[in-house]
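sry for the spam today, last one i promise. struct tokens for design, 567 residues
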């Protein structure tokens, strides 16, 4: 059954081993690659409208580029993009016509449309797929080959044709649809679990079909938060899943469009032996990870696991997956480009890709800092990332903050920290996403409950932080007052400026609300139904708009009610 899959993998092994060697050479002189890339972009785009405006033809050095071209944000390109998609105008910001427009998550107002050139598509394929498989093969050897994959990446977003004929939608659609004709050989669950219409319980489909597959080789997800959702679903619903596997049915309580239910049910057969194996495993409880027992051929997991997802990753490892299975932590990427790749399996650190984008960095803690190139970075310092890409964005503020953790040869190793536009501040205290997460995680650990997820709203009228937490496994003797006191103390520790302002009365003490069960899963489902890409659904650490505020505040319950069902 796996011959097609393994032949596809084996054919590419040699070229991907060469890619690792190529990347290693780049890291030894990254500024040569950076200078070459920038000069190529200046030459190629000198006759575009943007290139003429800023004199690309006369730019012959990085320093000249920085003097002539301003730092930009998305709004600086909306006029050009509108002319490109509505009037079909070419040669405005990039000589290369976009082959796709990435739809970014937009919960309020109009989502962004990020141009995506063929050259950028090639780079994504090289470094997100080619490099990834090369590194995995180097560590795993022939164990890299084997059974099918559990694919937890969701699509289902609408793809539309813009007036100029270019497709527009979530990029996950573009990356997975070409494989639909080989789906059975590649993935354990049917395509309906990925290209899911509204009203499809995709967690059930992924769990039910993957549990049937004894020979599962690997698991792929966008971010480890989605992997954790899947694991929690299996823990809470294993009896339903095992009963359906035993009988060869789909339970009538599972939400599915009727045509999908009928087509899938027609092909199912009872699997009493597999059901007995699974029942024996699950009946022993979840005090030890279940995945190595259920899938003895599971060799590796691929997923995004930046600082935003560290808590989810640790819970997956400790409670469900264990520490023996290899974990390929994807590097940093976005709709605007792919920025970094890991150097070893199992590390969430990654190194910049010198030939992917031109990078500049502004040090966060230095007032009036000027942008610098990667050779000027210092270990232990945080920088805002500025990029120039191959699709027409020049000196573009990503609003991402990266921590420099070290160097590989001459190339910086970085870790994503937080988004600048997700920092909260009522009285100038500037509490970052990371600080808000750490305060919540410490509180959960010290109070002894499990933190499913949390969000913060900085209330300007009441002048206080409002934390919303979804919690589980709550100790019987734990009180709401104890959690609030612990949270207040942790907030003051992670941001002393916040603590000082609470002491002086400038900010009121924190207010705590509790989410109903499954609130954060429901939020993700609603965003996917609105056509957002799963790759854009990062944790809502900071409630940043009215729609998010209404959603999360509407789904809260009294602490004692939560405690009664979450012991």
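last one done:
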């Amino acid at each position: 059954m796996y011959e097609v899959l393994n032949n596809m993998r084996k054919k590419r092994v040699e070229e991907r081993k060469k890619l690792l060697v190529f990347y290693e050479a780049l890291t030894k002189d990254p500024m040569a690659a950076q200078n070459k890339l920038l000069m190529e972009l200046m030459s190629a785009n000198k006759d575009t409208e943007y290139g003429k405006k800023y004199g690309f033809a006369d730019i012959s050095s990085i320093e000249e580029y920085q003097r002539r071209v301003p730092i930009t944000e998305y709004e600086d390109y909306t006029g050009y993009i509108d002319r490109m998609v509505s009037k079909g105008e070419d040669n405005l910001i990039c000589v290369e016509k976009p082959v796709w427009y990435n739809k970014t998550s937009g919960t309020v107002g109009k989502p962004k449309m990020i141009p995506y050139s063929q050259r950028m598509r090639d780079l994504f394929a090289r470094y997100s797929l080619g490099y990834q498989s090369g590194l995995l093969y180097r560590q795993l050897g022939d164990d890299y080959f084997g059974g099918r994959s559990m694919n937890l990446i969701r699509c289902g977003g609408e793809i539309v044709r813009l007036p100029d004929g270019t497709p527009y939608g979530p990029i996950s659609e573009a990356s997975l649809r070409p494989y639909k004709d080989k789906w059975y050989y590649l993935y354990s669950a049917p395509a309906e679990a990925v290209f899911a219409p509204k009203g499809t319980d995709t967690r059930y489909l992924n769990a039910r079909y993957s549990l049937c597959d004894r020979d599962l080789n690997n698991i792929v997800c966008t971010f480890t938060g989605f992997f954790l959702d899947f694991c929690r679903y299996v823990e809470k619903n294993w009896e339903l899943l095992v009963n359906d596997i035993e009988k060869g049915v789909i339970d009538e309580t599972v939400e599915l469009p009727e045509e999908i239910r009928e087509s899938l049910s027609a092909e199912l057969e009872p699997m009493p032996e597999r059901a007995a194996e699974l029942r024996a495993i699950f009946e022993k409880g979840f005090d030890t990870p279940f995945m190595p027992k259920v899938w003895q051929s599971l060799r590796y997991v691929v997923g995004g696991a930046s600082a935003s997802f560290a808590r989810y990753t640790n819970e997956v490892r400790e409670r469900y997956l264990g520490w023996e299975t290899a974990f390929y932590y994807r590097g940093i990427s976005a709709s605007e480009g792919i920025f970094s790749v890991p150097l070893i399996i199992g590390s969430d650190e990654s190194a910049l890709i010198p030939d992917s984008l031109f990078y500049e960095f502004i040090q966060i803690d230095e007032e009036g800092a000027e942008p610098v190139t990667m050779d000027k970075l210092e270990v232990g310092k945080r920088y805002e990332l500025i990029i120039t890409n191959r699709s027409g964005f020049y000196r573009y503020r990503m609003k991402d903050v990266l921590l420099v953790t070290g160097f590989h040869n001459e190339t910086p190793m970085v870790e994503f920290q937080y988004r600048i536009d997700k920092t909260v501040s009522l009285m100038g205290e500037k509490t970052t996403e990371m600080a808000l997460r750490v305060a919540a995680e410490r509180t959960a650990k010290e109070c002894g409950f499990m933190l499913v997820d949390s969000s913060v709203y900085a209330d300007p009228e009441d002048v206080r932080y409002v934390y919303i937490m979804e919690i589980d496994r709550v100790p019987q003797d734990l009180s709401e007052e104890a959690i609030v006191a612990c949270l207040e103390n942790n907030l003051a520790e992670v941001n002393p400026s916040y603590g000082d302002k609470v002491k002086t009365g400038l900010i009121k003490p924190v207010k705590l609300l509790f989410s109903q069960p499954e609130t954060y899963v429901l939020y993700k489902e609603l965003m996917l139904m609105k056509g957002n890409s799963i790759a854009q659904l990062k944790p809502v650490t900071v409630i940043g708009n009215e729609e998010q505020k209404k959603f999360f505040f509407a789904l809260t319950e009294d602490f004692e009610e939560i405690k009664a069902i979450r012991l």
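The chain has three domains: 1-146+323-422, 147-298, 423-565. ok im logging off now
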